[in-house]
Design brief:
The chain is of the alpha+beta class. The protein is 27% helix and 28% strand. Strands 1-2-3-4-6-5 form a six-stranded antiparallel sheet. Strand 5 and strand 6 form a beta hairpin. Helix 1 runs antiparallel to helix 2. The chain starts with a strand and ends in a 6-residue tail after the last strand.
């Protein structure tokens, strides 16, 4: 697992906001990594004074990382979290060109509902055109900006 943390003075996000800071973690897929990535995200949000987003952000990290581990065909997984002026952007890559999709899960199914949680808490979400990255944005409350 490799981790890097970056700070940016001025840059532009997909929403044309200034990137304040961010971090990236790359790791080999294993089920234990989901819990580790939740811890990494929780710790960084605390350092950024964004604890009010901890529940939603760790839920998204958990769902997107789990999905990448299960469906990424054993390829390396990456987690990137960027803090912009008004938004927190979470990106998970798995280098698989098969994009994640919402599935219908039956009452007896144990899996297949997690990705529905992402749009429930995110301001916006999607996948890269090549299918290798899922992302979402969470709104940073005014009192934290």
């Amino acid at each position: 697992m490799t981790t890097s943390s970056e700070s940016f003075a001025l840059s532009s996000s997909p929403e044309d906001q200034a990137v304040l800071c961010g971090f990236q973690v790359d790791f080999l897929p294993a089920e234990i990594r989901t819990a580790e990535m939740r811890q990494v995200a929780r710790g960084q949000l605390s350092r950024w004074d964004l604890t009010m987003l901890t529940d939603d952000a760790t839920l998204v990290v958990s769902e997107l990382v789990t999905n990448a581990i299960k469906h990424g065909k054993g390829r390396s997984v990456g987690l990137k979290v960027w803090r912009f002026t008004d938004d927190l952007r979470i990106e998970v890559t798995d280098d698989s060109s098969t994009p994640a999709r919402l599935r219908s899960a039956g009452p007896a199914d144990e899996n297949g509902r997690g990705l529905f949680l992402v749009p429930a808490v995110a301001k916006e979400w999607g996948a890269s055109p090549d299918g290798t990255m899922m992302w979402c944005s969470l709104t940073i409350p005014d009192e934290a900006s």
